[in-house]
Design brief:
heterodimer, A: 11 strands, B: mainly beta, 4-stranded antiparallel β-sheet, 0% helix
């Protein structure tokens, strides 16, 4: 399953909202899709699983929605610590795949 | 809180074998799936595979060169990738999967492996 994330880069100011898209080439059954956040020099960190369930310690300004082939990660109000690269990953297929990432940068 | 730490050579010669070990602390390996991911210099992430007891699942593109094992008495699991080429240069992460082997809920800090003579 190929995951395509858009946009590649999102330039936003603190306090603004962010909408990140992840589109799958096939239906991701059971909403087996996760979102990870990666900051420079760090490992990815799980944010969302099951398309919409926040992981432990994920702030509620992060929300995941979607089903089928279209999924969205929304950050309601950007905090300074939210500037990072975000990856989606599907885990319904035995060959787990990631999107190429969306970078959220300071405008 | 579980912690994972990768160890192994940071430099491997072409055609050689890449061998990494992940040490798990702060929790038991029982009942979880454990595995490996890698991230290429261009930042793309690739799933390598996972194991739990004798059950394994791996990336078909790596299967012929890949071996994974665990030593629960030492709280460690390992990765071996043979016949490496410069295309295998990446940051390798060991990971823990949430129960059921679905998504990764813990990651090691990663280890950069360079393939060069």
């Amino acid at each position: 399953i190929v995951l395509t994330q858009s946009p590649g880069t999102l330039s936003l100011s603190p306090g603004e909202g962010a909408t990140l898209s992840c589109r799958a080439s096939e239906t991701v059954n059971n909403n087996f899709l996760a979102w990870y956040q990666q900051k420079p020099g760090q490992a990815p960190r799980l944010l969302i699983y099951g398309a919409s369930t926040r992981a432990t310690d994920t702030p509620d300004r992060f929300s995941g929605t979607g089903s089928g082939t279209d999924f969205t990660l929304t950050i309601s109000r950007l905090e300074p610590e939210d500037y990072a690269v975000y990856y989606c990953q599907q885990y319904i297929d035995s060959l787990r795949t990631f999107g190429q990432g969306t970078k959220v940068e300071v405008k | 809180q579980v912690q994972l730490q990768e160890s192994g050579p940071g430099l491997v010669k072409p055609s050689g074998t890449l061998s990494l070990t992940c040490t798990v602390s702060g929790g038991s390996m029982d009942d979880y799936y454990w595995g490996w991911m890698r991230q290429f210099p261009g930042k793309g992430l690739e799933w390598i595979g996972y194991l739990r007891y004798s059950e394994t699942l791996d990336n078909p593109s790596l299967r012929s060169r890949l071996s994974m094992s665990s030593d629960r008495s030492k709280n460690q699991f390992s990765l071996s990738l043979t016949s490496v080429t410069p295309a295998d240069m990446a940051v390798y992460y060991c990971v823990r999967y949430a129960r059921g082997g679905l998504y990764c809920d813990s990651w090691g800090q990663g280890i950069l492996v360079t393939v060069s003579s």
